[in-house]
Amino acid sequence: MRGARANAAVPDWENPAVLGINKRASHTPLRSFRDLESAVDFFRPPVPSTNATTRLLSENARRQHAAKSQVLTVRGLAGSPASGMHKLSGCDWKFKLFRNPGEVPPEFLEPDYAASDWTQIPVPLNWECAGHGTPIYTNFVYPIPLDPPFVPTLENPTGCYRHCFALEKGSVRPGDRVFLQFEGVDSAFYVWLNGNLVGFSKDSRLTAEFDVTCLLAAAEQQNTLAVQVFRWSDGTYLEDQDMWRLSGIHRDVQLLVKPAVHITDFTIRTPLTFEYGGDAGDSNGTAGLLVGAKLEVEVLLGGPSAEELAECSIIAHILDEHGRPVTTRSGPVPPVSARVAAGRWYGADTAGHAGRGSAGIGGVARLSADALALLGAPSAEGGAAGSGGLRLWSAEDPALYCLVLELRHAILGSLEFESCQLGFRHTEVRNARLLHNGHPVMLRGVNRHEWDERRGKALTEEHMIRDILLMKQNNFNAVRCSHYPNIVRWYELCAHYGLYVVDEANLETHGFDPTFVDNQSNPVNNPAWAGAFLDRAMGMYGRDKNQPAVLMWSLGNESGYGPAHLAMAGYLRARDPSRPIHYEGGGSRTAATDIIPPMYARPSQLQALTALVDNGEERRPIMLCEYAHSMGNSTGNLDQYWEAFESHPSIAGGFIWDWADQCLRATTTRPDGSKVEYWAYGGDFGDKPNDGQFCCNGLVFPDRSPHPALFEAKAVMAPIAFAWEDQDGGDAASLTLRVRNKYDICTASNIALQWRLLLNGKPLTHPGLGTVAEALHVPTDTAVATTAAPLLDGGWYDAGAAGPMPPRSAGVLQLQTSSETLTDVLRDAATAAAAGSLSRAGGGVRLEAHFEVRALLRTALRWAEVGHVVAHQQLPLPKQVDLGAAERAVAAVLTNAAAAAAADPVAAAIAHLQYEQDPASGTVTIRRAGPDDLHLRISGASGCIESYGVRGSELLAAPLEPCFFRACTDNDRGGTSGSSYAARWLEAGLDRLQPYGRINVEVLEISGGVASDAGSATVGSTLRVRASWILRPGERKPGPGARAQEGVGIGEMGGTHWFAVVDSSSLATTAAAAPQSASSTTMEPGAAAVGPEGEIRIEATYDVQPTGQVHIAWRMDTRDALPAPLPAGLMPSLPRVGIRGVAPARLGDVSWLGGGPHECYWDRKAAAHVGQYGAAVQDMRVPYVFPQESGGRADVRWVALLPQSGSHELGLAALSATPPPAPHLHVSVSKHSMEAIHAARHEYELSTDPDALTFFHLDYLHMGVGGDDSWSPTVHPEFLIPPAVYAWQMVLTPCTTPLDAEWAYCALQNAVLGAAGAVDL
C-alpha cells in the first residue's frame, strides 16, 4: 500500500512540508468533565504511599483499572461517567508488521477485511517490545542512510493495527462533536475509521487529534479503526535523540466527546510583578517583593452558530486541590465570569473540514482578575493553597489551586467543565540570575528519558510516580524532558509533587554534524524544514502552556543553529513571557537562548563563563543542561561541580545525564541450557548501527534500584549543610554548629536536626548525652536501601528544629551538650569496650571518633514521610573534645591487663617460630606449634605469600600478589585510537603481569633465635623475610577482555559545546598530580618506558610475628609501568597500586571500618561516611549492566573476611598500616575474579556459584572513576596515579569477629604513630 493519497507526487512520509493531514491544532489537554467535582478529582494521584519500592497505586485505583480492562475487552472502548473521554487503548489490538509500506494490502483498512491471521498486541506498547521487529539503540548515527528527506523503500517496517469498538447508547448525543486522539505514535501514521481516511500525522511525542464526528457508526454498531505506522519517515531525521529507536503506538488512544458548543482551548497566565532592591536575586537569596499578581484566562470555543455561542458564558471556579472553595478573610472566593464573544474565527479549528458549515463558528471569552485582591495577600505562615492568602507554586512549595472553567448556556445550563492545575508562577532572567517567583533558584536537575525496561516508551502512571518520588527523596528539584515532550500526565504529577520541568521540543539532528564542523548541514538551516521545526515548538507550547511545572521551554537538543531556532524562540517569547528559552546547540551563547546552557563543561570551564558575567560581557545565567555523565561506575568529582555551582551567583545548577539505564529485558540461554533474563543494550538484538552500552548512563538501574552514584547526588545536593562554628573567643566548652539553609524559597521550619557520636565507626549511646531520639526514619521509605549496612546503627539525639531560617541563609545551633561531656562519654565508652576486649589488644591504642548530624522532615510531605532524611553529614570531632583522654584510659586498662597476664607463666609463654628455606626454590616456610599454630609459606617462584594458615584454617586460596589493573569501567574505555585509559593499560600489559627473571627471597632478620642448621632456625619473636622481583607482561591471551573496547559514545564533544572565550586545547593540559602520600612515598622522576609494554619492580618485606600477624612493607616501582610518550593533553595513570588475594569460599561475609555502606571511590565519596559496616560478599559488587570494576570501599582502616555462618571459625583481616598523611586502604571484595569481570559483557556471563571463592583487593591507591564525560579520559589530575615509586604498609591478622580486627587496628595505629608520640603506658 503506497499510501493513503495515491495521487501525491511525493509520499507524505517523505515530505517535510506535510506536517499532518486533517490534524487539529495543538491545544491544552481537554477532558469535557460532567461536573465540578470530577474536574478536580482527576488531578489527584491515586497513590496512598510515598514508598517508591512498593506497589504505589491504591487498591481502589487497581479495581477501577481492572474494571476498565474488562469493559475494553468486551466493547473495545471504555467510557468514563465523569468525562467525555472514552479509552480505546489499554487492551489488545490486531497487529501485523510488514517489511515496507508497499507490502501492506490496500484493503486492510476496510471493516470487512479478514485479519484472522494477524496477531494481538497491547496498545500502548512499542511493537519491538512485543517481539515484532528489531529494537535499535544508537546515540546519534542515524539508523537509516542519511539521505533527507528520503527513507528506505524496501526496509521501512510498517505496522498495521486494527481495532473494533462500539459506542454505548447515549454516549454521543445529537450535535456532539467527537475527536480521535493519539497521544504518541512513532514515527508517522495514517488512520482510517470505517474505511474512511481520518488523517495523517508526524511528531511522535505530541498528541495528534482528528474530528471523526461524521465517520462514526451509530450507537451499539461496530466501528473499525485502522492505523498504518511507518517506522521511518522524514520526521525520523528530526528525532535523532540518543535513545532506543522503537516504533508504534506508545501512548494512549481515546475518543473525546464534547457538546455542540464546547471549549476548544484555553490559556492561563499568572503575571507576577516583583519589586527588587539592589542586585536582584543575589547569591545570598535576596528575593523580590511581590507587589502585583493577576489571573488571566482566555478561552476559545466552537459551536454550530454564533447565536448558540452568544448564549454562553464562561465561569471560572478557583478551588483548592481537594475541590473546596478557596477562602480568604472575606469569605469564599467567588467565581469569575465572562460572556462569550461569538464570531471569532480563531476559536474553531477547521482542520478536516471543507467549509465553515461543518467546521462551526468560533468564539472567545476573556477573564482577568487581580489575584491579590481576589485571594488575599500572601501569608507569612504559608499553608496549602486555598487556606488563605495567595500561594505561589514552586518545586519546594508546590502550592496548587484547581481552576475549573464551566461552560454555561443561558437556557440549557452547564454544558461541560474543563479544568487544569493552577499554579501562580513566574520565571525570568535578571542580572545574570535565574529567578523563579522573585527568588534565585539552583536547579538540582536530572535528564530523563521516558523508559520502561519491558514496555519501552509506554509508561504507566505508577511508573512515573515512582520516578518522581525517587527524585524528590534524593534531593532533585528539576527534570529535563530529554529530548521531547513527555506524556501529559508527567507534567501534572511534577506539579503535584514539586519538580521544575524543562519542556523540550521533539528535535535533534545530531547525526548531520556530529563533530560540529559543518553547521550548515543541519536541517534547521534549510527552508524546506523550517515549518517542521516551528510546528514542533508551537505544538509543545500549545499542549503544555498551562502546566505550572514547566520552568522553561527548550528548542530541542543538538540540532545545530539556524534561522528556524530564532523563529521558534521568537514564537515562544511572544506567546509566553513568563518562561525563559533554553537551547544548547551550535554553541550555548546564541541569540536563541535566554540561558547559557553548556553541555559537559568542566568546573574549570565554568570559571571562564562566570568571568564573562563578571566582565559585563554576559547578562544571562549559566546552567549545565547536561553534566556528570553517569555511565556505569561513574559520577566522580560531583562534589567539585557543586562547589563550582555555589561559587558564583550566575550559576543556576545543572542536569545530570541521566536518570535511568535504558535497557530492555531480554532472555538468553546459558551453556547449561537454562534460560536467564538480562538487561540488553545496543547490539544485543543484532541491531546495526548500535552504540553498545552507551544507553546505560543512569543514576538508577532500569528497574529503578539505585546506583551508588544516586547517594552521592543526594549528598552533594542536600538542601541543608553543616559545619562547626569557630569558637575562638567564645565558651570553649560549648559546641556550636553552623547550619546553612540551601533552599531557594522555603524556610527551614520543617527541618528537625539530630546528631550522634561515633567511636571507631560505631554510634554511642550514653546517659550523659540525654535521651536517644525516637526512630522517626524508616530507611526503606527513601527507596535507596543498600544491601550493605552498619554493624551497629542508631544513637541519634535530638538537636531541636532548624527554625524559620530564611532561604539561602545560615544560622548557628548550640548543641545541648558540651565538649567535656563528649570527652567523658568517649572515655567511658572506650574503657568499657577495652575491658571486654582484653584478649584482642595489648599495650597502647589509638582511637578514632566522628560526629554526625542530619536533617529530617518534621512533617510529612507529598513525597516523603515524617523523619525522611534530607541531609546527613559526617564531621570531624570538635577540636575542644579530648580524644586523648579516652586513649589514656584505655592504655591504663590494657597495661593492668598486660601485667596480670605477665604474672601467669602459662599465659605469658610465647610459642617460637620455626622457619626453613628450600635451597632449590627459595621458598620460605614458617611454622609455629601449639594451639594457635601458624603455617605461612612465601613462594620462591613469585615472592608472594601463597599459604597462610592459623589454627588449622587456611586463610588464603591463592597467592597474595601485587595488582595494577582493574576490570575497566565504561569511563576507562572513553577515547579513540589508543587514547583511553583502558587501551593504554592493556597495551602496557598491566592485565597480564607475571614474575620475570630471578625472584630473590631472603631471611633478613632473626630476632631471639638461633639457627639450627643452614636454611632453618627457631625464632623467639619476629622473623623478617624480604622478597624482590620484576613484573612484566605475559603472553596476551585471546578473549573479549584482551583488547580495549573504545569509541563508545564517540562523537559527543564534551566541553567543546560551549561558547566561552578560552583556548580549549589549554584546558586539557594540566600537570601530573603527585600521589596523596607525599611523606610515605618516594617520588622519583618518571623514566621513559623502553618499549610498548611496561615493567614494575617489586620489593616486599614480611615481618611474621608469633601471634600470627604478618606486617608487610611494599615498595612498588612503577615508573616504567606505562609506555611513553603520550599525546599532548593526556596524563599517565595506573588504575591501582595494591595487592589482590583469594580467600576460601567459607569466608563469605565481610566487615570493615571505612567509607560506606555503599560503593565509594577516591573521587566519589561525599556520601560515604566512615563507619563499621558489614555485608555478604556476594552483595559487595554493584551489578552494573556492563560488568566492570565496582564495589570498592574507600578510606578503609581495616577489613575482615569472616565465615558466612556467623560461627567463630577463623577469618582473615587486613589492616591499613602506612603512616599518615598516607591514604587508608581502598578495598573491594567479590565472588568473581577481576579477569572474569573484565571479560564479561553481561552480568549473566558471571558465575552464580554460591560456593565460589572470595576474591579481594587491598589497594594503597585506586584511581578515581571520573564522570565529566564517558568518551574521553576525564578523571581529574588529583585522582590519577602517576607512575612513580610507591612505598606502603599493611598487616594481615587472623580474626574471629569484627572486634578482633577493630582492636588489632587500634593497637597497630599506636605503633604506627609512635614516632609522632605514642600513648604513655
UniProtKB/TrEMBL annotation:
Q: What is its EC number?
A: 3.2.1.23
Q: Name one GO biological process term.
A: lactose catabolic process
Q: Which domain of life is it from?
A: Eukaryota
Task: Domain (Beta galactosidase small chain/): give its ranges.
Answer: 928-1293
The record's keywords, sorted A to Z, are:
Glycosidase, Hydrolase
Keyword Hydrolase appears in the UniProt entry: yes
Q: Please name the GO terms that the record assigns under molecular function.
A: beta-galactosidase activity; carbohydrate binding
SUPFAM superfamilies in alphabetical order: (Trans)glycosidases, beta-Galactosidase/glucuronidase domain, Galactose mutarotase-like, Galactose-binding domain-like
Which reaction is this enzyme known to catalyze?
Answer: Hydrolysis of terminal non-reducing beta-D-galactose residues in beta-D-galactosides
Q: Which InterPro entries match?
A: B-gal_small/dom_5, Bact_Beta-galactosidase, Beta-gal/glucu_dom_sf, Gal_mutarotase_sf_dom, Galactose-bd-like_sf, GH, GH-type_carb-bd, Glyco_hydro_2
Protein transport as a keyword of this entry, yes or no, is no
For this protein, the record's Pfam families field holds: Bgal_small_N (PF02929), Glyco_hydro_2_C (PF02836), Glyco_hydro_2_N (PF02837), LacZ_4 (PF16353)
Q: Which is a Gene Ontology cellular component entry for this protein?
A: beta-galactosidase complex
**What family does the database annotate?**
Belongs to the glycosyl hydrolase 2 family.
Descriptive protein name: beta-galactosidase
Q: Which organism is it from?
A: Volvox reticuliferus
- Lineage start: Eukaryota, Viridiplantae, Chlorophyta, core chlorophytes, Chlorophyceae
